[in-house]
Model the fold of this input.
Amino acid sequence: MKEILEIFRYRLLWLNFILLIVSAVLMFNYNIISLLTFAFMINIYDILGYHFTLIRRTTQLPDKVIIRAYRIHQMMFEILAAVLIGLMVGWEFSIGCVIIKFFGVQDALYYLFLQKKFPDKFTWMKWTPLGIIKGDLSKIEVIFQAVIGIIIAILIIIL
Done:
């Protein structure tokens, strides 16, 4: 139990959990909040899976095979979460969830909740729209892209 409390108290992870619970309850009355529920849920998954399991436990990066295996089950979880949101509140919300993931919103949340400095260069976000076009992204480009993703997701839901 002590270890679980230690995890909850780590940086702003406690806030991520509280926001997840509040948004999960509210999303049934205010469906648009399901975007937040999705973002908070996949962020917790990434913090616990990547930061705690792969990175924090060692002083060196795990080999690429381990990281790729983690990314596969991370993507499976994200797809399942988006499908569940689609089944619970509507498919337009599920599409919105996929868009905010594709535009890197969760990556920005990862740094915010871990209170880590945003890197000057995001070399791993080549799967996002700007990353496909440009390759490595600056922190300003990542934030800009995330905001655009949120706007597009909201527009898809309300239109």
